[in-house]
Design brief:
It contains 14 helices and nine strands. Strands 1, 2, 3, 4, 5, 6, 7, 8 and 9 form a nine-stranded mixed β-sheet that branches. Helix 11 runs antiparallel to helix 14 and helix 13 runs antiparallel to helix 14. It starts with 15 loop residues before the first helix and ends with a helix. This is Protein BCCIP homolog.
Length: about 350
């Protein structure tokens, strides 16, 4: 594994069964001749606050982020990590082929439209909404946001005729959108309406409404989606890239209004989790099903966000239930979390420690 790292230690609550599911859905990165580049943010300030005067300014992502060489398990890559747990169990029986792949971070651009749209197609479950407009907002914000592709494919696209199949080349996406800045956009209105409609608790809905309305100008909607074969070693670097760019944007954007739009006080996240359908039965002799964990997070970092969140709520979603035998006792749920910007440095440390252990 790159840099001599070992497979990350699971959270204590995870059973061996849960761990095997999560790691089978991630890329199994084998030993590499090149270590992952170290994060270049050691002296930068936390996201959401202005950086120090000596903060290094970001060159292009192409120069800033060397491509780590990863051995990728290549099966079906048309599902995000969150979707993979609720879809057909055919993947578990597929024979995976290991191939060498170089991944790199890039600014979003127009040609990424179809790949980004594919990653976000179930973001609001089955609700009809302005997904196209949402994708356009993400692609238009090039100073803060990252897409992850195969490095060689991007180079060939730049040298050739601008072609390339972005649906296949794009493996991950991360961005954050200011809810106040884009409040008049149809897609953001649809998003707010959806979140309020799925929140059933009166007190929580009051807090949610406050973030969506009065405090919207200081709230960032954090979006991170990736396919199941995305190398988990790159996840901390993906978040580092985002939060560093947020900090840089508070100084480098051309107008005061834009600079202020990245001074977030809260982050709002909409993700998915798996919840056990029925509590484990307390019997003298426990069955195999009793070892199932009450909650599984398809994206490991979401458990850290949940731990650090100011408040959160879950809601049922309409996606098809998994036919995997291992998942028969679970139902997929939506999870909304509010995380204060001041908690982000702690999140980054916890995430890095999780992958580095």
């Amino acid at each position: 594994m790159p840099g001599g790292r070992r497979r990350p230690a699971p959270f204590p609550a995870f059973s061996p069964f849960a761990r095997s599911l999560i790691f089978s859905a991630s890329a199994a990165a084998a030993a590499s001749s090149r270590p992952l580049p170290l994060p270049d943010d050691a002296t930068t300030s936390a996201a959401g606050t202005p950086g120090e005067d000596n903060m290094p300014r970001p060159p292009s992502k192409r120069a800033k982020r060397p491509e780590p060489s990863i051995e990728e398990e290549r099966g079906s890559s048309s599902e995000s990590e969150e979707e993979s747990f609720s879809n057909s169990g055919e993947e578990s029986s597929q024979e995976l082929q290991t191939v060498q792949a170089d991944f790199a971070f890039f600014d979003p651009k127009e040609n990424d439209f179809h790949g980004v749209r594919l990653l976000l197609k179930t973001y609001l479950d089955s609700k009809p909404w302005d997904l196209t407009g949402f994708v356009d907002l993400i692609l238009a914000q090039t100073t803060v946001g990252t897409v992850v592709k195969l490095a060689d494919d991007e180079e060939e696209e730049g040298e050739g005729n601008g072609g390339g199949n972005d649906d296949e080349d794009l493996f991950g996406l991360i961005s954050v959108l200011n809810l106040g800045r884009y409040t008049e956009q149809r897609c953001i209105k649809d998003l707010k309406e959806y979140l309020l409609s799925v929140c059933s608790d009166k007190d929580t809905k009051k807090q949610l409404k406050s973030l969506l309305e009065e405090k919207a100008s200081s709230v960032g909607l954090l979006v991170c989606r990736r396919f199941v074969n995305f190398p988990y070693e790159l996840v901390p670097k993906l978040y580092d890239s985002l939060f560093d760019e947020v900090s840089w944007a508070t100084e480098d954007e051309p107008t005061q209004e834009l600079r202020d739009s990245f001074r977030f006080k809260h982050y709002l996240l909409l993700v998915r989790m798996l919840e056990r359908k029925t509590p484990a039965k307390h019997k003298a002799k426990k069955s195999k099903d009793d070892d199932d964990e009450p909650i599984i997070y398809p994206k490991l970092e979401d458990e850290i966000f949940k731990e650090l969140s100011s408040w959160s709520f879950t809601f049922p979603i309409r996606s098809e239930q998994s036919s995997q035998q291992e998942m028969k006792n679970y139902k997929e749920m939506g999870l909304v979390m509010a995380v204060k910007a001041e908690a982000i440095p702690k999140f980054r440390k916890k995430l890095e420690a999780l992958v580095s252990e």
